[in-house]
Give the backbone structure.
Amino acid sequence: MKVSIECAHCLLERAIKQVKLATDDSDIQMDVTAAMLKMLGENFDEDSVPSHIGTDRDLLVQKMTGIDPYVDLKRMSNSMALSILPELQSLVEEVSDTKERFRKATLITAAANAIEFDVSGREFSLDELKNIIESVEADLAIDQVDRFFELCSDAKEVLYLMDNAGEIVLDMILIREIRNLGVKVSAVVKGGPVLNDATRIDAEEVGLHDYVDEVIDTGAPAIGVNFEKDSVEFIEIFNNAELIVAKGMGNFESMTEFVPNAPTVHIMRTKCTPVADQVGCERDKNVVMIRYPGEKNLSQ
């Protein structure tokens, strides 16, 4: 998908938040903000992709400050998510029907977008977790979970594109259900720090290796799937995938720029109006939607 005018505000606002996280030095903050305005002025146009500009923004902040602004928040997110993992797993395990278990797990991973793991002192009760999952069901604007289950039942391998730190813990619940169908799952994390996206470090912290057949990375610190930055090895794996699960808006923004080679299941919450408009639903709704090979490029 291409940028809209609303993306300009979001991109700059996120940059300012990042530089404040990275440093208290007002001179550096001003220098980074000036450089960011210059970068946006040179690169923000009707053909720009928000996830691509977001990548350039993040790398600029890291280069000028020498710091990954999200490193502490990601660690906190992982810890918070791990603390509620047993209760969430129990919600799935209490369901006996395989298809219903799969649905419950999918709703949980969709709920991950609605939970702020990195809020200090945050604790969840089992009742609250159940309410969150029920609200995900109620706000499910596009519900293709049954077809998702059918695709997994017929597949031999799934390429699972992870999203944020913290959220990857809830993804592990769904991944377990996919593997219970006899499917090999390869989890994909980012090749370096960008936004609060999960990397190999986060995969190690949460024990992702215990839930998947293998963990691979994109070969680059880039939001979503970025053919200009990602490694040749990852792009080959991606292009030859049998079935893809893509978590989050960053993957959606980038992957709607091309027609998928494999059925692609997007699981996300429409947190902004441009993405909601692209999907065709209201803002702040949950989506489990499938794109198929041969479908038109949604950015057109």
About this structure: The radius of gyration is 19 Å. Residues 71-93 form the longest helix (23 residues). The first strand starts at residue 140 and ends at 143.
